[in-house]
Amino acid sequence: MAETKYSRVALYLQDKHPIRDGMEYARYAEEKGFEAVWQAESRLVRDAIVPMAAFAAVTQRIKVGSGVINNWTRNIGLLAATFLTLDDLAPDRIICGIGAWWDPLARNVGIDRKRPLAAMRETIELLRRLLDLENVTYEGEFHQLRGVELDVVHGRKEPRNVPIMIGATGPQMLEMTGEISDGCVLNYCVPPDYNHMALERLEAGAKKAGRTLDDVDRPQLIVCSVHEDRQVALDGARELLTQYLAQQPHIAQASGVKKDVVEKIQSILGWPATREQVRQAMHFVPDDLVMRITASGTPEDVKKKVREYMENGATCPILYPLGDVKLMIDTFAGGF
Fold it and tell me: What is the Cα–Cα distance from 19 to 16, expressed in whole angstroms?
């Protein structure tokens, strides 16, 4: 039987490259047929909005998404105005990826992430209404609006087409995502079979809203370290995994990594982690773990692994390149 060929593919950029290099990668990905470029906003290092605007300004067709911002640190009016502004720059090309953030980072900057499901539900409802150019009065637990609307005087006075995708990891957030959002940005550093639980919960939520799972787009972040030398590729991914398993416990839990491995890494890494600490802890992350929760290896290795995520319910890989970015883009150009 012929192997299924997948045509959708997207690029994920974080803080590993200068923004101007990211602009060039966005242009190159567009040239090679990628459907989207997503910009991370996780650690306190680079916000998503400025790079998104830069990518949108130097491209013509590729979609530009936030992967993902959080729903705590921008008030709802500013959040809506931000995405209206991005849509002014690149009409119908902007995607709002939004997540519930994570501790200890949120706690360390004074954010009490209480009742995250209720907070996200309010945010999604109001963001949609404001981008539809409604005049909104709302008295909620997390948001209070009194006759608020986007004050468009000189721009396009029309509802904006900005899909809202929730970056969900846990089962309850996944279920709510299936109910209220346009899609789910599935997390990275998880094995492909993690998606089984995710799809069950997304489908349960979709049914609540009278929808099916097919109505919920499911792009998935995937760490992708590609090199003709397989060991070089594995070592490139290992460095990233070491930091993420120590600092983002929701990812560590979803990845199925043994608790003692995470604890050993956490005992070495501080906050923020230094390069020396990461390198000291890297040897606790074995090759088999790298291969299980990332797409790392030769070009054929990584395409095979990304297919596994697609076969387990993802609809579009969002590839985070470690190493030669253009090699990774070339590897997936034209489908895989």
Answer: 9
Structural domain of 283: 229-294
Residues 69 and 53 in one domain: yes
User: Is residue 127's pLDDT more than 90?
Assistant: yes
What CATH code is carried by the domain that includes residue 132?
A: 3.20.20.30
Q: Compute φ and ψ for 42, nearest 5 degrees.
A: -130, -80
Whether 183 and 214 have beta carbons less than 8 Å apart is answered as no
- Tell which wins on pLDDT, 216 or 240: 216
Clarify whether residues 302 and 289 are in a common domain: no
Which amino acid is it at 144?
Q
Beta strands at 219-226 and 295-297: parallel, antiparallel or unpaired: parallel
- Residue 24: which of 55, 47, 50 has the closest Cα? 55
pLDDT digits (tens, 9 = 90+) for 140-195: 999 999 999 999 999 899 999 999 999 999 999 999 999 999 999 999 989 999 99
- Does residue 107 share a domain with residue 51? yes
d(CA 317, CA 336): 11
Residues 6+ positions from 107 with CB-CB distance below 8 Å: 113
**Contacts of range 73-82, beta carbons closer than 8 Å, 24 or more positions apart:** 73/101, 73/109, 73/111, 76/123, 76/126, 76/127, 76/130, 76/143, 76/145, 77/130, 77/145, 77/148, 79/123, 79/127, 80/126, 80/127, 80/130, 80/131, 80/150, 81/150, 82/49
Residue of 11, 8, 1, 74 lying closest to 326 (CA atoms): 11
Give the total number of structural domains in the chain.
2
* Short-list 120, 119, 57, 124, CA closest to 94: 57
Classify residue 5: in a domain, yes or no. no
Q: Quick count: other Cβ atoms within 10 Å of Cβ 194?
A: 21
Mark whether 28 and 72 lie in a shared domain.
yes
